[in-house]
Amino acid sequence: MRMRYEGTIYRPPSESHSLLIQCTIGCPHNRCTFCAMYKDKTFRIRPVADIRQDLNSAREYYGENVQSLFLPDGNTILMKTGELVEILSYARQLFPRLSRITMYGSAQFLNLKSLEELTALREAGLDRIHSGMESGDDVTLKRICKGSTAEQIVAAGRKVIQAGMELSEYVLIGIGGQERTREHALESARVLNAINPDFIRLRTLIPMPGTPLFESYQKGEFHLLGPHQALWETRLFIDNLTVEATQLFSDHHSNYAWVHGRLPLDKARLLEKIDELLLMPETEFRPPLEGAL
Hints:
The chain is of the alpha/beta class. It has a single domain (16-282), classed as Alpha-Beta Barrel (TIM Barrel), CATH 3.20.20. Helix content is 37%, strand content 14%. It is built from 10 helices and 10 strands. The chain has helices at residues 48-62, 81-94, 107-110, 115-124, 138-143, 150-162, 181-195, 212-218, 227-239, 267-278; strands spanning 19-20, 24-25, 44-45, 68-70, 100-104, 128-134, 166-173, 199-204, 246-249, 261-263. The strands form 2 sheets. An 8-stranded mixed sheet has the order 1-4-5-6-7-8-9-10. A two-stranded antiparallel ribbon has the order 2-3. Helix 6 packs parallel to helix 7. The longest helix has 15 residues, at 48-62.
């Protein structure tokens, strides 16, 4: 099968079995201080004809057996709604067994779409948005150059859900550093309580060489959380969640706590698991920089 991928392709761990069809190249924001992704690319949107050709190639190779489809790169949601509708509809025609089609979409670009546009995308076959909110703390969001405020994150998340799509929100444990650990945990919980997403997925910050945040860490300006501090932040965050029927996952190698469950049903069990982990010596956990590129 001939697939014309450009650069490194990133996808969520939950999309590990999905067909990847690249619709955009790079990230239109690409200024987050912690992110080392997409640095080898200049953002652009691929022609619909090229995307259809890649879908055709996948159909020739897999037949009708594709069950999930993820559309990289970063913030494919920025594409014109009409073009996305065409791609989604065509994919559904080629792969009638698809259970879901998903893509990345951060708040600043989701908010460029009207509710009517998002509803049209849902009707055309878009099932889930993966959105990296990272934090609900406005101070932290500004420091990491996320491009969105907490209020904008809430508005975007609610609009996605109102349009009938599933929403998977990502929280970056430790992104506030030691200085904002409490505010980051509490404000992130507050924002997610206001959205009530289908999924909350935890990631733990590992400063990546070549990023502004890594430089701040090296200079002693950013104070990274140790394993126990990260666990305390995770505990405070989960303890303050009041979401309903939301699934929590820590499905990433960066995390110190592998806690999964449905909230609020499993909250007590999740907190108990973290308390057990806090009894372990910090030497039992990965080093804070392990996994850096």
